[in-house]
């Protein structure tokens, strides 16, 4: 393996160790209030908007789902969303996701799978909607992950990809300096890089919105034409 290959392998190991530990108190942290919950609210608002306009994402995949909070909120849309799949590389995160799901009405519509965002264990064109919040910066081969998202999305399907926005000075300080030091092996994309990655992966449209101030985040909505 090349030196770069070795180095990239370390990314996944380090993320795995980090999230295996974090899982036990993940839902209780301040960062949920500041970053994760607002990103989930954005996704839910976007889905609500689509449902009102008659676009029904029947089958959803949440990549890097953590403890499954976003998918559990999606159950509130009722059976217009028939199934939600959560994928994560951390067994402990999935343990809490499954435990929490047992307390939800409609839990039979949710499934949680251990896996890697860069090698999705799903067939082509399987999902109507893919979501990925606060996870993409951990992927060492972001082009591969974007390609996998495109592969498993059906024609007419959509992707919502949210991550920290490092394009302004505050975002650069938070994500490129503080988070990079604390977590090691992370790479937050600029808006331009997101656009390039998604376009090169085969998405036909990419719409980007920056939201939040401290910390700022970027929501990419990418679509595949029918
Ligand atoms: C900060 S958490 C975000 C969890 C959830 N999406 C949220 O918004 O609360 C990042 C998650 O991405 C997962 N992750 C990191 N790298 C991954 C990979 N290559 N494949 C799948 N999951 C990964 C981690 O295990 C972790 O649960």
Structural descriptors:
single chain; 226 residues; alpha/beta; Rossmann fold; seven-stranded mixed beta sheet; 7 helices; 22% strand; globular; binds S-adenosylmethionine
How does this structure look, described?
The chain is of the alpha/beta class and 226 residues long. It has one domain: Vaccinia Virus protein VP39 (Rossmann fold, 3-Layer(aba) Sandwich), CATH 3.40.50. It has helices at residues 3-22, 30-52, 69-74, 91-101, 142-152, 169-183, 191-201, and strands at residues 59-63, 83-88, 110-114, 127-133, 153-164, 205-211, 217-223. The chain has a seven-stranded mixed beta sheet, with helices on both faces. β4 (127-133), α5 and β5 (153-164) form a beta-alpha-beta unit. α5 (142-152) crosses α7 (191-201). 38% of the residues are buried. The model has no long low-confidence stretch (mean pLDDT 94). It binds S-adenosylmethionine. S-adenosylmethionine (SAM) is lined by residues 12, 15, 19, 36, 39, 64-66, 69, 88-90, 93, 116-118, 133-135, 138-139. Residues 12, 15, 19, 36, 39, 64-66, 69, 88-90, 93, 116-118, 133-135, 138-139 line the site of S-adenosylmethionine.
